[in-house]
Fold each of these.
Amino acid sequence: MKITIFDYGAGNLHSLAKALESPGHTVRFDTDLRGALDTELLVLPGVGAFAAAAARMTGGLDETRAAVRNGLPCLGICLGMQLLFDDSDEGPGAGLGVIAGRVTRLRAAQVPQIGWNTLEETSDPAFTRAALHTAYFANSFVCRPVDPSCVVAWSTHESDRFPAAVRVGNTLGVQFHPEKSSAPGVAFIHEFLNSVLPG
Amino acid sequence: MLTRRLIVCLDVRDGRVVKGVQFEGLRDVGDPVELAARYEAEGADEIVYLDITASAEARATLLDLARRTAERLFIPLTIGGGIRTVDDVAAALRAGADKVGLNSAIVQRPDVLTEGADRFGAQCMVASIDAKWEGGRYCVYTHGGRVATDLEAVSWAAECARRGAGEILLTSIDRDGARSGYDLKLTRAVATAVSIPVIASGGAGTAEHAGDAILHGRADAALVAGILHDGVVTVSALKAAMRAVGLPVREAA
């Protein structure tokens, strides 16, 4: 499978690329969202601010929304998950809007949330298969979907319960960093890859 | 529920892990990538590389090391030492660090914290504070503990948080290497003054000390170095001791 990481200019992408690598898959980067769509799996990685990332997406926003809605497998990590939603309290700009809802600040005294948080009510089989029970988070904002039926894992920071993962068809968004969640996190990525393999 | 973290620190010089007392008699103890991967396998929650060379030539070596590490390590990596500007932050993140630790540079120019947080998010900006008890207060030191400043550690930590730091890495100079336990008074004073995570550093001598730093010092995480590298304790013994006092801890796979 041809995997493309949309590189919007922030953060460590080495671990993610390495975690995605496996026999039968090729991983490439593209700094242009339209160019990134020439792929079998689009990855929206996770470091930076919403407004800056949204600005980098304006060029290919409509095409990407259409492609993902038509079934192009997509993995959004942390900020990448938030970009699947409509908009964010963090800053101006439009997300892809493939999942209806808004991104808002964590309702907690200690923000950002940094560390390993337990995953609750996991319903996607990838979590059980990968034995991923605790994952690494580094975020100040979380997604609030209009329809929570897309949530396939929850986490709680202080008293704020928020979606740790959402899944709609071939689109998976994770608020945590699977590529930083040790061996179970890497296994989780591979379970997702297997679940969207064509044929 | 957020678990409490055990963070392993490796002192790096010219691309190798070294150890020594007060930077004297440094001894090569191995390849950072191998050691970091081993600590991950043993259950460490994060790795910190502290670059103690910080010369211009060493910078390229460190970035190359970050790159090689990021391809092997699947837990967060923080790089500290010699990072001065927002461009240095960008280069370190780009090379493979997930967070950067800044110490002397933010004392000289605190705006770097805000600039880094605006561009890359607060979660990757770690304010590293070295403190020493002096004249009835905790005095902030820079340049690896060699240069005293006029700053008081608790108020400086609060200012770092206000300016965009996502975490405080708090090292007690008095306890560093003493193995008599973390400075719980210092840790508690800073942890209650800020609403961002505090990592306690300096003084771990037994497995129980890490739990003390979190339970009694109210830190979110404990950083250990020497006692692990010397084989005094193991990562699993440290985490078992944290668990034994009732702290939520991640189970290693």
Amino acid sequence: MAGTWIAAICTLGLMSFVIKDSPLYRLAEYTFLAVGTAYSFVLSLERLNPVIITPIKQGKYTIFIPVALGLLLYSRFFRGKQWLMGFPISVTIGVGLGLSLKGIVSSEIVKQLSDTYTSIGSLEGVLIFVGVICVILFFYFSRSNTGANPPVLAVARKIGRVFLMIAFGCMFSNVILSRMTLLLGRIKFLLGDWLNII
Amino acid sequence: MNRNNLFLGITVIITLTTLVAGFFDLSIFNTISANLVNWSVVIGLVALATAIISLMRMHVKRIMTRRREWFYSLYFIVVFTAVCSIGLIYSSRGQPFMYVVNNILVPLSTTIYSLLGLWMATAAYRAFRVRSIDSTILLVTGIIVLLGSTSFGAAISPVFARITIFIRLIPTTAASRGILISGGLGAIALGIRILLGVERGHIPGQSK
């Protein structure tokens, strides 16, 4: 019961912003920030045990290398020693770059191209193929959009733009629909669970 | 070798090691790559408190200097400390912590996301007013998809649902694939720029 009241006050506090910025809204906003940050912090702290402490207990002392690298990130709080942050950042960027390049080539390029090419047997497949080529040409920034371009490129870019606008319209509507569903959920909570009107 | 080249060298070696492990089945590279991935997880975890320290410093400074609306910073610190204490004492799966999450965090995050829908709708009204062919296409598509996805549209005409299916199946798929492929090519270009040392934004003290 008390939980429902707390949730209702928090919900109304945030919703009050629709009328005007108020202290109630500010309190709800700061509550959200504080609880959200604390939630992430607690979850991350609990991961210290399986990721760092357990390997040390098992005698895997190489874990001290990344721990030391991670501690170097705290050098940002010491004037003149900030350059030490470069070691952990270089390692993290290197791993992230390697993994993302590998993932991009397989999932974002090869998979998408093969799916586009293999479905070319049907009318839908041909339309998708034309759309994909035109959209890619639209993002071909080495040639300006306004300067003298070969007619084929100019037409392809125009078609690509139409495809993009249709897709953006569709995606936008999907987002609006999902948000409206959430809003209805909150209204249903206020009127049903809290006030028992519906 | 100066510091910047050292950092660039570390980035290049680690990137190439991870890449080689991804594309070739060489056991030594696979082992090194798996360890490096684990390292980056550990680095992220150890560095966790840097964000909290920065946040606390900002709020404490705001309180000490009695800057405008400083009491909200005090409130933030109190709530943050209380929720952290509950989480550390009872664990994240404990009843008190779940009570806070279910009755404060979940309703607040849901409300924020739902309210964003309202702002987006009003912003869309201003942005998509019929001014050019592009915005007209976007507006018309948006309205058709909205009608085709709701029972209101179905009550007017079943055509909206059919057009919506077509829009989702053909142009949206084509555009999404085009965006993914173009974005992927752009990310590869950025990766090559980092590997060649043209892009050095990640190195401390280097803005370019």
Amino acid sequence: MLSDVNLLGPELVLMVVGGFLLIADLFIKHRRVLVGVTVAALLGSLVYTTALLSEGFVGNDAFNGILVFDHFAVFFQVLLIGAALAAVLVSQPTLARLPSRRGEYLALILFSTAGLQLLAGTRDLIGIFIALELTSIAQYVLVGFHKDRWGSEAGLKYLLTGAIASAVLLYGMAILLGLTGSTNLADISRYIALEGAGREEALVLAAVFLIVGFGFKAAVAPFQMWAPDAYTGAPTPIAAYLSVASKAAAFAILIRVFFEALGDDLLAEHWKTIFAALATISMFVGNVFALRQNNIKRMLAYSSVAQAGTLLIGLAAISADRSELLGASGMLFYLAGYTVTNLAAFVVIIIIANQRGTYNINDYAGLGRRMPWLSGILAFALISLIGLPPTALFFGKIYLFDTAVQSGLGWLAVIGTINTVISAAYYLRPVKAMFVDQPETEEDEPPVPVAPTSRGVLTTLSLASLGILIIGLVPSLVIDVAEQAVSAILS
Amino acid sequence: MDPSFPVLSLLIFLPLGGALLIALLPGKHTPTHAFWQNTPGTVQQQARWIALGTSLAALIIALVMFIIFDRNADGFQFVDEFAWIDAQSLGFNIGYAFGVDGLSMPLVLLTGVLSVVAVLVSWKIDLRPKEYFVWLLVLETSVLGVFTALDLIFFFLFWELELIPMFLLISIWGSGNRNYSAMKFVLYTVFGSAFMLAGFLVLGSAADTFDIRELRGADLGAAILPAQAIFSFILIAFAIKLPVFPLHTWLPDAHTDAPTAVSVLLAGVLLKMGGYGILRLLFTLMPEVGADADLALAIIGAVSIVYGAIVTIRQTDLKRLIAYSSVSHMGFVLLGVSALGVTGMSGAALQLVTHGLITGMLFVMVGLIYDRTHTRQIGEMRGLIHYMPLLGAGLVFAGLAGLGLPALAGFVAEITIFLGAFGQHEAPVLVSMLGVLLAAGYILWALQRSIFGPRDEKWAGLTDSNHWTEFAAIGALTALIILLGVYPRLVMDLLEQGVTPIVEQIEAVAAMGGGGG
């Protein structure tokens, strides 16, 4: 039993400190102390994970198989901690503007991260649901944290659609439980292998409900309607956090469920069709809607829908024998690259918004001269999002498209590459504004920055942009880790 | 030279290194207490001298390689390679591999020459000179990478890398409707490379390698698409780049609005990436499909030649005129390739080189004249030759080379292509000859209407070419055009050596097909 709790350690650290922060909020008003405690908690969780890893706990499970500690879970735990750390560090200006509830904000980030970590490490339907609700409820509050018109609208929209998605997910789980008599992914897989034949329709129905629930979290079209409003209304660090952490964890659980529980050959063809269709819809919807956005946060919201579509290509490649490993490791690689890229983009946007108070792409005109480094990094991140060299997502896209081709989905690779063209049209707009356009009014002195850019923000930014370059130049570093992670769930 | 010395990598990444050096120059925003401060004027000075030094060094390396290149050996030389991503279990094996053979060596040298010319004609750029030269050098690296990559993924990487500098160079330093043109250029190219990437991935996953040397002759039976489909996918990208009617519409816009140096590089080397790709990738990797498609290619080539020539006649802007004439001239490449013989293919490859020099020179001349007159409209330039005899003569010389005057470079290439292709495709060749006639017409007519004519007092205050950079650029190009016109063997030997394995492969396939049928 003690070792069971031990495996829950990384999440427990976050939850305990989160609870402490909620109480401490009443007494401690000093922002630096609160942020320090939060960062310490996240680092503590990371250390705990590494300790478990080096102490040989890999492959152990706990609580009757609900929780598992494998390389796959570790991969996502590290990724999620990274995203959460970035979100906390860049939240300083947001926190400075909050009159109160600073501890609450940080505690909610910790709770949400704990939930997402659980999601990556659970192999049981009940565990999945608990983890998903833990993270969702924290996120509903975070999205609506600014009590202005947009914040409230975003929070309410996210809450209502999220509640429906949860209900649908639960419905799917109930069907699956009814059919197979178990909530454990391994048991479900065993059942399908033995007695699944003849019950395909019911299984597919249950799986579709599951996809709705997870697809909502990952902002996959057509379950993406909350994303643009939530990204715009939420505090920008939270938008950044949602766009990378939520997405990564949602794809983690999609991979786990569809590889471990439903990966049987019996159903593989169905998944191929469903995910290929969703990938196509998601890419087109995200990219086409992003074309017309002037608010860069909205643009990145739609872009994240399109990127989710690109990731789904990996899931569509689930069925072919050899590509099974390739598809999943391709997704993990892409997620790692996407996380650093999107974080870098969002951090620059936050800095620009703090200094110039705008999210409008047209107001970025001439920034390349005034802030050459920041503009350069934003341009670099956007180039990575398009998938041009020498960036992380250049190889990420090649990896996923090659996966599609190897599993006989050449047309999906073509659709993916055509979408790359569409996406170039809007990703290049901020680049053009910053470096090509001249500002309408020549100002001698930049407006007084609302908040100075802190060291934490700059560190986050440098790490993220270095990540883009390093993953782009030496992709084998991440590929090896991704392969190791994926082999854990396929053994 | 020590054979293990990575001279080719040095060549490819030298311009990038120069670009980094320029980027790190302290700009005028550097605080005054900085250790080393600069005024805008000295930034321009330093940037252009570094750019010139780097591109000259690259040219010298390319020249040395050209001289010590072994003209009797088969295969690739100066090969630099190591495994970049080695995940064979996943069917993923990407190698960092670069090398040159007879086909790519002259193109590498051409890139070296035209990059120096591009720096020289940009000498007076004063709008954000630091960034300008950075992007110009990045562009050189990406083109060199395309011409020497031996791995499909690296080929694609450099092919895409070229977009970023081009987009910025056209949209910041261009003229006219430059934002539209830059975006159009990028979207056309990315559209083409979308299909190219799909084709590459199918090829790579069928043969389990992305290495061009191993892919040659590999069995593509396991590919998920028929070879014809892969061929057409990749052809789309190259046809856009070359460009070929009806995929050429980005070219006149991009050319017209780009700054002079970028026009030179665009016409001189970027278009050549398309022709090079057709020879290096399509016909080397899928000779049987190429051999079947020869008539189609010949017809597309002939249509491009004639259509391009007819549209050229109607142009009133000198840069646009040259741009459309490029469409016509690049049709010859396709025609030469379609001949499937050593003569036709080496003629096509020679056309890539000579057109690079000639059109490069045409753009240089028009750019220099435009710097002085601020007009490119043919009707407005009358009598210019009386005031600028040197620039006028240069334009006339380049124009004559462009229409294929014997003893100049363009003539040799075109006549070789006709000789090679006539036996194979008589009708397209006959139609194409119309293009030569039209070329004589549009060039002479344009020259007559633009710079000749009675003196016009409005040009009286203008000076002729008077700066050493201009003399150097014009002189180098003139010398090379004459040299290749009288002694084409200089590169023809290499090109023939480069295309011979391709032709042998086509013949081998044809013999097998003949034996089977």
Amino acid sequence: MKYRLMLIKVGIKKGLASKYALIFWLFSTLISLTVQYFLWQAVLTGKPTSEFQQTISYLILMQLLTVLFPKTSYEVNDKIRSGNIALDLLKPVAIATQLLWESIGYSIVKFALIGTVDLLICLWLLNFKIALSTILMVLVTGILAYLLYFELELLLGTFSFYTYSIWGISTFKEAILLVLAGNMFPANFYPAVIKRVASFLPFQYSFGAVGMLAQKPSWALFVQVVLIQLFYIILFNVLFKILFKRSVVSTVIQGG
Amino acid sequence: MRYLKLLATYLKINLKAIAIYDLDFYFALAGMIIQNVLNIVALRFIFNIVPRIKGYSFAQLLLTYALATLAFAIFRCFFINALNISDYIHDGRLDTILIKPVNPLFQLVNERVDEDAWGDLIVALLLLIIVDMQLHNPWYITAMFIFISLFTSLIFLGLAVLGNIVALLSNGLANLVETTFDFFDMSKYPLAIYSSTLRLIMTFIFPIGWVASIPQEKIAVEHEWIWLLLIPAACVFFFILIYQLWRVFLQKYQSTGS
């Protein structure tokens, strides 16, 4: 537990080292929210105000998750390209563990600054009316979504052992997430076919499912989402371990 | 002439750099094409809810999207390294750029090209041609849009350089370049959807409205050909203004010593 706390502290320090970057990130987030606000205001003209409020609060939540979730694939890629992975492999803590806890630390800093503003806007839009059970459901599924996304990023990162670059694969992933994860707009706006396809794939359980629970909370949906999230977390973890074991032995780091 | 020769050399080196990561390049190309197609599909979903947005039909909104994407793709294909200036400052690499007898911004911009923007460029061009045909715009309107996009990409370059001025002041610890992507998002929709204050800001302060919304309205709808000169002039003016600002702050630059 002690080393995990240490790694979280490292992540927090990394985040605080770039506090100006975080402030500018917040600025960037607010611009993006402005676009969404005016777009959906134009789209939902003539519809009940509650529908607009629900949609915008959903999109804010999705944006918050996007900001908080780690970009582990890039970190793995950097380690492979620079050769620093050789040093990490020597440490008595698994690389995945190092990356996870450091990411959590960094995400805590991001949450403290960007998350607070995002949540305040979200709550203001909902007139500060939100049930405690909804907060609990969003919190639990949000944490599991974080882990699921982390595992997905780790898995993608291992491709760097073969490609030595992750930019393209990451762009490909973002293209899929764009529609199938539901972070572009609420799933109820999707046609039935896409909704059905997305419900079987893991992407929605990192983003859209959390938003769905925030919009229409129910214990049945909560249990279903949690079980699917757990299934994919375990699956991705096993896949990562197999892939990493195979890839790492074929890696050649030039000394220096 | 000297700068043209340098440009050719930079291009040759950059293409070689891309070739090292060939597999990832194809992933990126496919990723950008898919991302654009999915963006269009998502826009279509919105039009399943309402037939028009602020008077704009699906095809008209696609034209705004195509124009913004084309300008941004040109920016990404040729000027993407403007987003990385803060890294040069942070690592101390800007010092080596400054001692060379070539314009620093020219060197910075040309040191790297984007791997995946070519997918964006292909989609934007195809989309522009298809949408113009759907809207029964004559071929010369499409040609005019392509011509204008070469200049409107300078707006994104200007915004990226502006974002890096913060990096000059903070020794590369912070920058505002990421907002270039947010401004691109704003440019993908007509000015009509924004509030009057934002419309003013987007026309006269951060001229994002000139990227797609104004060209679409003035050329495709109103056929006012004078805007074929006014829009490029506005883009060049904005870029020169930012460039002068960049030069002022570059003179105040203090090396990180790394």
